[in-house]
Amino acid sequence: MSADRVTDPGPFRVTFVCTGNICRSPMGEIVLRALAEDAGWGGRLTVTSSGTGGWHAGDPADPRTVAALDRAGYDGAAHRAAQVTDADIAENDLIIALARDHERALLAAGAPRDRLVLLTDFDPDQPADPDVFDPYFSDDAAFDAVLAQVERASRALLASLEPRLRSGH
Prior knowledge:
Layout: E1 12-18, H1 24-38, E2 45-51, H2 63-71, H3 86-91, E3 94-97, H4 100-108, E4 116-118, H5 140-167
Keywords: Hydrolase, Protein phosphatase
Family: Belongs to the low molecular weight phosphotyrosine protein phosphatase family.
Protein name: protein-tyrosine-phosphatase
């Protein structure tokens, strides 16, 4: 192999993390993946999600999450919840916490500060509350509002990642 040949580092890996991986983080995963595919970055970006707790591991997304995604044109039916692992922390290029308590849990689990961000850091509306609201104990309107925030922030997130995707990281 010649010295001037660049080895492809593989896709840029992003993971979203919330509490149980049935409401907010699946929205982030599904939305960012769809936006990346629509923009032609599907092969350069791998998107996953998990939760800080394992209560729902193996379960589908909350039915209200799936319904909100469906109303917006996304398919969340295949999602299955997982708990974040040490491998998730080690292998992802960017770890996106949906709230500050997730961020604290991830830092305590060894997530590097330079690869950990809050999703609201990308929200162009700059909400006063840096936590994406947990709609679990709320109604369909709350799920729709959370999805709108996730979409808004994910669009800005993808735009910020495009130079890295173009250059191969």
